[in-house]
Amino acid sequence: MIQIEKIDGVRKFRLSRTYFGRALYYTAAYWVDGLMIDTGCAYTVRDLISALEDVHIDLIVNTHTHEDHIGANASLSRKFGAKIFAHYSGLPVLSEPRKRQPLRPYQLVMWGYPEPSKGAILGDSVETANHRFQVIHTPGHSTDHICLYEPDQGWLFSGDAYIGGHDRALRADYNIWQIIDSLHKLARLDVNLLFTGSGSIHKFAHRDLLEKIYYLEETAERVLQVYRQGWSYGKIKRAMFGHELLLFYVTLGQFSGKNLVRSIIEDLPANL
Fold first, then answer.
1. pLDDT at site 271
2. CB proximity list for 30: less than 8 A, separation 6 or greater
3. 272, pLDDT greater than 80
């Protein structure tokens, strides 16, 4: 399934694998001025290529190398001769996704393994014919995560560095303090439009980023307070976040409230 929308000079592709006509989980790719930002998952490659017949792609930049953001890298690179760029720490995943990033059952069902692709190291900026994007390293969701910021237009392509809502669970390999620090970096930018990795577009980016930061920092403060009183991880999780979400069972425990508690406590920077 693909949904296409044009916003100013940006073309948004909202992509998902479907079962019985229903989308499982949306991820987004964006085209602007010959630049492709992320490429969806392996199951939506044909849809994306068909939707790009009237444009040319010179460059592909991956905000990070999770399987739902790199699925059409190889196909688009072959079709358009586009060069692929990613953070240096993600390049091994591009070249050997099955070996470097084994997928769990839910990931195989929703996104599948991407075809291997060859990437180059992303520098401090990305230039197209009419735009210059700043590259901002924003780890936490993954170690190789970056965002692209176009200051003249006020465009911020945030990948999965910003995810809306009030988190009650965290994936085992995420780092909540790095996520918070990355959000602070983004909140300092002058942003007119925030383009997220799920396809939602935020016109009040500064407000939304600060709201997310406040929730995460306030939650972390409460967790640390009771932990220092001797509460166990399990007790904190039950008191703060209640029962595990359905996501816990779908992902076979990879996303859990206990992981959120653990990261708040164990990943706490020394200076905090």
1. 79
2. 10, 11, 12, 13, 36, 37, 38, 157, 195
3. no
